[in-house]
From TrEMBL:
Gene Ontology biological-process annotations: glycerol catabolic process; glycerol-3-phosphate metabolic process
UniProt gene name: glpK
Function: Key enzyme in the regulation of glycerol uptake and metabolism. Catalyzes the phosphorylation of glycerol to yield sn-glycerol 3-phosphate.
Binding, glycerol: 82-83, 134, 243-244
Domain Carbohydrate kinase FGGY N-terminal: 4-250
Source organism per UniProt: Asticcacaulis taihuensis
Positions annotated to bind sn-glycerol 3-phosphate: 12, 82-83, 134, 243
Domain Carbohydrate kinase FGGY C-terminal: 260-448
A Pfam family per the record: FGGY_N
Enzyme Commission number(s) of this protein: 2.7.1.30
Record InterPro entries: ATPase_NBD, Carb_kinase_FGGY, Carb_kinase_FGGY_CS, FGGY_C, FGGY_N, Glycerol_kin
Residues bound to ADP: 12, 16, 265, 308, 409, 413
Name of this chain's protein: Glycerol kinase
Length: 498
């Protein structure tokens, strides 16, 4: 038996490789940021070749730093930023355009047209998603309509579409496998989450040829092995999941009613709803959590587009901090936000508002406002968005949460976590390992090759780092949330429609 699992975590801002041992400990991590491309306001692209080169680079770097060889790795698990869309040439393996990132709003008008044509409930019913530019479907349509010759070539079967999982597997296997997994497929607007297959009716509405699509597989199975020459020896690829579903698995939220919130570029709260695909009454998404041995588990999801990215903006856009970690001390230097409220609707608002035309606002500024108040309002804005999502989730699921498990880069911010617990009125629990996305991918791969025998083994590995208990009074919570809602109202429907 080989001794480790290699998890590849391809995120929105960086590619990471993490080596995990049998006890679920992280032996080595390597990480590399890559370019964010903003060709126009509201557009966000990545160079798919750079995604592949940084991902391969960090995988090799982690192995070398750990002093391991390919033969020491039992399997690779892949997890990825979801929805981001790549279309490439099957013959050359070259992308026909930059990847269109999940945050990209260029297809908002296509969504408006589809809604005006009465298609919204069809998509919602079959995919559990909303007709929003966030998802892959309209991004694929845009590429086919705008890249010269793309539609004709797609119809001839010369092109391949994939989310980042597919793109990585294609490259890892030297073009031998064009596959995706159920969790990633469920984010495309093309996949019927009740039948577990691509849906011809939806493909027809979006005018996307089936020949473009990868084969959709389960989340934990041996798909194939890496191409000769990549790592010295071939390694099995045995687990794949979208990063938020992988984090839910890594947080071992394996029972119905358990939930996690990940604070990365955005904030994504998922609640395991077991075998039931609950249809939200509050604009949450119904999504596939994972498919194991043919058995589908569903989740309710609240997707918030900007969380840690707001902290990056304070760093790179405003220059009021030099590193993301500095925000905590700056925000803690004042007792409160001094009445400042910041709604980070930089790319519109996701759950529960779904307004592609909302834009960021800072309200309540006075002559006494300082950068510390803005920093504090920024952290509070992240937490308020999650509070709105949790309220919707409790109402939809009927489950009263006893705790919220948290992870992701910004979950290291204690001030943010305390405010989150206060504004939710629910304890926030941070585990010792916050790289739960990678851990989830490692678990899925390890289970497929018998590295771990059962999920019971995984549950025993999860350990608490810190619990943040709510201390804010109920009256204050209600008043703060009311003020937040007022501020959100000011940010909605701001950008002119195309
Ligand atoms: N101490 C901190 N306080 C607030 N935000 C932080 C802190 N440390 C990191 N972040 C934010 O977390 C994000 C990175 O988290 P990560 O989980 O790596 O995201 P992703 O997977 O989306 O790339 C960045 O947006 C960064 O600004
Ligand atoms: O890369 P992250 O961690 O911000 O996750 C992005 C999400 O998967 C988008 O749906």
């Amino acid at each position: 038996m080989s001794r480790y699992i290699l998890a590849l975590d391809q995120g929105t801002t960086s590619s990471r490789a993490i080596i995990v041992d049998e006890g679920g400990h992280i032996l080595k991590t390597a990480q590399k940021e890559f370019r964010q491309i903003f060709p126009q306001g509201g557009w966000v692209e990545h160079d798919a070749r750079e995604i592949w080169s940084t991902q391969m680079g960090v995988a090799q770097e982690a192995l070398t730093a750990a002093g391991l060889r390919a033969s020491d790795i039992a399997a690779i698990g892949i997890t990825n930023q979801r929805e981001t869309t790549v279309v490439w040439d099957r013959a050359t393996g070259q992308p026909i355009h930059n990847a269109i990132v999940w945050q990209d709003r260029r297809t908002a008008a296509i969504c408006d047209d589809l809604i005006a044509a009465g298609h919204e409930s069809l998509f919602e019913q079959k995919t559990g998603l909303r007709l929003d530019a966030y998802f892959s479907g309209t991004k694929i349509k845009w590429l086919l309509d705008h890249v010269p010759e793309a539609r004709a070539r797609a119809e001839r079967g010369e092109l391949a579409f994939g989310t980042i999982d597919s793109w990585l597997v294609w490259n890892l296997t030297g073009g031998a496998l064009h596959i995706t997994d159920a969790s990633n497929a469920s984010r495309t607007l093309l996949f019927n989450i009740h039948t577990g297959d691509w849906d011809d009716e939806l493909l027809a509405v979006l005018d996307i040829p089936r020949a473009l699509l990868p084969q959709a597989r389960g989340n934990s199975e041996v798909y194939g092995e890496t191409a000769a020459g990549l790592f010295g020896a071939r390694i099995l690829i045995a687990g794949m999941a979208g990063d938020q579903q992988a984090a839910t698995f890594g947080q071992v939220c394996l029972e119905r009613g358990m939930a996690k919130n990940t604070y990365g570029t955005g904030c994504f709260m998922l609640m395991n709803t077991g075998g039931a695909a609950i249809r939200s009454r509050h604009k949450l998404l119904t999504t596939l959590a994972w498919q194991l041995g043919g058995q589908r588990t569903y989740a309710l999801e609240g997707s918030v587009f900007v969380a840690g990215a707001l902290v990056q903006w304070l760093r790179d856009g405003l220059g009021i901090i030099r590193s993301s970690g500095e925000i905590e001390a700056l925000a803690a230097s004042v007792p409160d936000s001094g009445g400042v409220v910041l709604v980070p609707a930089f790319v519109g608002l996701g759950a529960p508002h779904w307004d592609a035309y909302a834009r960021g606002t800072i309200l309540g500024l006075t002559r006494g406002s300082t950068k510390a108040h803005i920093a504090r309002a920024a952290l509070e804005g992240i937490a308020f968005q999650s509070a709105e999502v949790l309220e919707a989730m409790i109402s939809d699921s009927g489950v009263s949460l006893t705790e919220l498990r948290v992870d992701g880069g910004a979950s290291h911010n204690n001030l943010l976590m305390q405010f989150q617990a206060d504004i939710l009125g629910v304890p926030v629990v941070r585990p010792k390992i916050t790289e739960t996305t990678a851990l989830g991918a490692a678990y899925l791969a390890g289970l497929a090759v018998g590295y771990w025998r059962s999920t019971d083994e995984l549950c025993a590995q999860w350990q608490v780092d810190r619990v943040f208990e709510p201390v804010m009074s109920a009256d204050e919570r209600v008043a703060r949330l009311a003020r937040w809602r007022k501020a959100v109202g000011r940010s909605l429907d701001w950008e002119d429609r195309a």
